[in-house]
Amino acid sequence: MTVITLPQFAQATGGMVSAPHFLAAEAGADVLRGGGNAIEAAIAVGSTLAVVYPHMNGLGGDAFWLISDGNSETVKGLAAAGPAGRYYSARTFLDTQVHEIPFRGGRSALTVPGAVAGWGAAYDYSKSFWHGKLSWGDLLENAYQHALRGFPISSNQSATLAHYAPVLCKQPGFSHIYLPGDEVSRPGTIWSQRALGNTLQEIAEKGSESFYEGQLAKKMITSLRASGSLLTEQDMIDFKTEWVEPLRVGFGQGEALNLPAPTQGLASLMILALLDRFKGSFEDHLGAEFIHYSVEITKQVFKRRDQVIADPHFHDFDLSSMLEKDFLDDMAALIEPRHVRPSPAIGAGDGDTVWFGVVDAEGRMVSVIQSLYHEFGCGVVAGDTGVLWNNRGCAFSLIPGHINVLEPGKRPFHTLNPAMYAENGRVHLAYGTMGGDGQPQTQAAILMRAKHFGLSLEAAIASPRWLYGRTWGESNAGLRLEHRYAKQVYGDLQKWGHQVSWVPDYSDVMGHAGMVGLSNGANSNFAAATDPRSDGGVMGVDI
Fold it and tell me: Total domain count for the chain?
């Protein structure tokens, strides 16, 4: 069969959507076309992604939002990430001689999912401040129709499922939904999720609260507890999202904005601010010098990130002090041209995620990330609801005294961090990516390319990328380059002391990035781009 895709770059006069799956971009554009605002369109995008990209996000996961009415001074952050249940602490595992939180199964289902509550908080904000008029049914219709009627499976979902099926097939409810006939469906196969469609219909009829209270919540918790989770109905009832003030740092001719802890938004901003200090040291966005400075900066930033980022309700630290000029200048003094410092001890920062962005006709923007953490989360489907639960709790430590030690009611460290860029008091771009530890690095790459090197949004995202870090099972951090880089770049980096390896062109390892924002074109107000490494697309609305 033929699978319809959308372009990876477009411009329009009445609003834009960028998403890592084309059906989600279409859902958001439908809302904009029907008179909805950027928040309403984002809820349509997010709910549709929960259906058509289930290996990377879902109703059982978390989300973080940046919301702008166009004015950079009034940007709001929304943390929709759930805490550990009341019966969880490090001792829960240590007392049974378990020294690492399991990645899969009911025992890894230890945090309340926040994504649906995030939709609810954003929906209320839209109604109160942006005069949003659309109903829950209007916003979730695309999502539940795709779930009930079916849609063509993406190549990314099929490949990811094939890789993890031997482990995931053992989890309660997984094979019944995701492995029909005990086989991995090929790309393009029409696949439906009737149970998830029914759950989305219930939320459409009753609102986001129905996910956390009542029969739906009871069914999910009963099933999870049968699989080994200690979460309770009261944990679900007690959960609340949180509005937060974004962190900011000067960059280029404007400022970059991101979220505070428990996200790693600080790291993304620090990398950008430090690269800004060295922009006279590299001339080519495809050159070895740009990569070298980026990697050496990333090492220093991650070392500090891992010392200070935790749930601020349990560990109060003034993150803004690390964005002050003197602090950043002192860090910059540690970076040397063509000299590689030892890699700090950093954790394995994998994680699959979706970023999406929307700008509406009035220039209001949202930048959103949703995630289950690892591919398909913990692998447990919560009863007959079709909801796949996250395993974000794996990011907790079981070491007593650790900044991210597991405690009841505490949120874990989050790699998730949506971003924005503003100039002259106006938000110009919403951008972000999936990719765990790669998120701050890719954010830096695409914003530098767009604002410092002057590339189009499309070229900024599609150009070759690098990734510094380690993945599961590796003891040392290394530097990966997409094979589209020149051999000379590889050779120079290796000569300077970097541990370099190739990855294929347009590799998933580099994440799925996207951007929406104001257009520089004379005939369009807005532009958007998505990543050729994803199954995504962009769609605009003209007026």
Answer: 1
